[in-house]
Specification:
single chain, alpha+beta, globular, 11 helices
C-alpha cells in the first residue's frame, strides 16, 4: 500500500493511489488523512519512531519541496529507520530470541492492551464479523485463482479449505457464550490489528526499546479485536518462524502479566482463523506483479493453511484432509 524510501537514519513512507474494499487512497486528501492517522495510531506503540507528517508541494518553478508551495501534491510519514537486526522476525530466524526477551515483548504488548478502552459491541455483531472473515477466506481460497494447482498436495486443498471453514463456523456457533464473556470482561479493544514478528522491534536505541510499527491505520473495524486474538496472532507468527516452544512461552508470559487466561480452544480458534486470513492474503499477491515470485506466494499460502489446519484440530477438526506438522514451515 506504500512506497518506503530509506534515507540514512530516516525513512519516508508514501501512500500509493489505491482503491480496494478496505480503503480509497485515490485523492491527495485521503492519502494525507491516512498519513496523520498512521502517525497518531502508531505513536501508541512506537512514539519516537514516528517523527511526523510532511506535506509535498509544487513550487512556482514546477519543482517539488517539503513544507509549502502553490499546489499540495502528497504527504509522507517521516520515521526513524529501524535496523533489520532490531526486528523480531530477524531475531527469530537467527535463533537469538530467549525467554527474557519474550517476557519483555509480552510485557510491552500487555501494558498496551491494558491501557486501551474496552469496546462493548453486541455478541451477535462481533460473531457476524468473524463469520464474515471465514466466508471471505473460503471464497478467496477456493474461487480466486486456484492457487492450489501448484501446491504440494493439490488434490486435497479444496476439501481441506471447506472442512477448515466449516469447523471454524461451527466453533463460533457453539461458543458464542465465550465471545460474550470476552466482551463483558472488557477484552475487546481497538488494538494494533497486524501484530506480526516483522512489525515488532527490540532495539537498543535511546527510547522505544520494544514496540511495534505498521498498525492497520486504514480500517478501524480491522483493528477492533480481542486482546487474546492479537497476542495469539503474534505467537502464531513466532511459531511459523521459530517453532511452537517460542510461541507458547510468549503466550504464557502475556497471560501471567495480564491475568487473562482465555479458554485454550478459543486461542486455537483465533490462530486458525488468523492463519487462514494470512493464506488468503498471500494468495491475493498472485494477482499483483511484485518482487516476489508466484511460487513464493503459493508456498506461503500453503504454509499458512497448514497452520490453520493444525490449530483447527484443537477446536474440533479431528480429521484434517491435509497433513500438518508441529514444526514451523520451511
Amino acid at each position: 500500500m506504500s512506497w518506503v524510501f530509506l534515507a540514512g537514519e530516516q525513512a519516508l513512507k508514501l501512500k500509493k493511489s489505491l482503491h480496494n474494499p478496505y480503503l480509497d487512497f485515490r485523492t491527495v486528501a485521503a492519502r494525507c488523512h491516512a498519513c496523520h492517522e498512521e502517525l497518531r495510531l502508531n505513536r501508541r506503540l512506537a512514539p519516537s519512531i514516528y517523527l511526523g507528517v510532511e506535506s509535498i508541494w509544487r513550487d512556482a518553478t514546477g519543482g517539488l519541496r517539503f513544507g509549502a508551495g502553490i499546489e499540495l501534491i502528497d504527504c509522507v510519514i517521516r520515521m526513524r529507520r529501524l535496523p533489520e537486526a532490531a526486528m523480531l522476525r530477524t531475531q527469530l530466524l537467527q535463533g537469538s530470541v530467549n525467554d527474557k526477551l519474550l517476557e519483555t515483548i509480552a510485557d510491552r504488548i500487555a501494558k498496551f492492551h491494558l491501557g486501551l478502552p474496552a469496546l462493548h459491541p453486541t455478541t451477535e455483531v462481533w460473531c457476524l464479523a468473524l463469520h464474515h472473515q471465514i466466508k471471505l477466506n473460503e471464497s478467496a481460497l477456493l474461487n480466486q485463482g486456484q492457487w492450489w494447482l501448484q501446491a504440494a498436495e493439490q488434490a486435497t486443498v479444496p476439501a481441506t479449505v471447506r472442512e477448515l471453514c466449516r469447523a471454524q463456523h461451527d466453533f463460533l456457533l457453539e461458543h458464542e457464550a465465550w465471545i460474550e464473556q470476552r466482551i463483558t470482561q472488557g477484552h475487546m479493544v481497538e488494538g494494533h490489528g497486524d501484530l506480526r514478528a516483522e512489525h515488532v522491534f527490540v532495539w537498543d536505541g535511546d527510547s522505544d526499546t520494544v514496540g511495534a510499527i505498521d498498525c492497520l491505520e486504514f480500517s478501524r473495524s480491522l483493528r477492533q479485536l480481542d486482546c487474546a486474538d492479537e497476542i495469539s496472532f503474534l505467537a502464531l507468527d513466532c511459531e511459523r518462524l521459530a517453532g511452537e516452544t517460542v510461541a507458547q512461552t510468549l503466550l504464557q508470559h502475556y497471560h501471567k502479566i495480564t491475568g487473562d487466561y482465555p479458554p485454550p480452544a478459543l486461542v486455537h480458534f483465533y490462530q486458525s482463523l488468523r492463519a487462514a486470513i494470512r493464506a488468503r492474503l498471500a494468495m491475493a499477491h498472485l494477482a499483483n506483479p511484485g518482487h516476489r515470485s508466484r511460487h513464493e506466494w503459493t508456498d506461503r499460502a500453503h504454509q499458512w493453511l497448514q497452520l490453520a489446519v493444525k490449530h483447527a484440530a484443537h477446536i474440533g477438526l479431528t480429521h484434517p484432509c491435509m497433513s500438518s506438522t508441529n514444526e514451523p514451515p520451511a
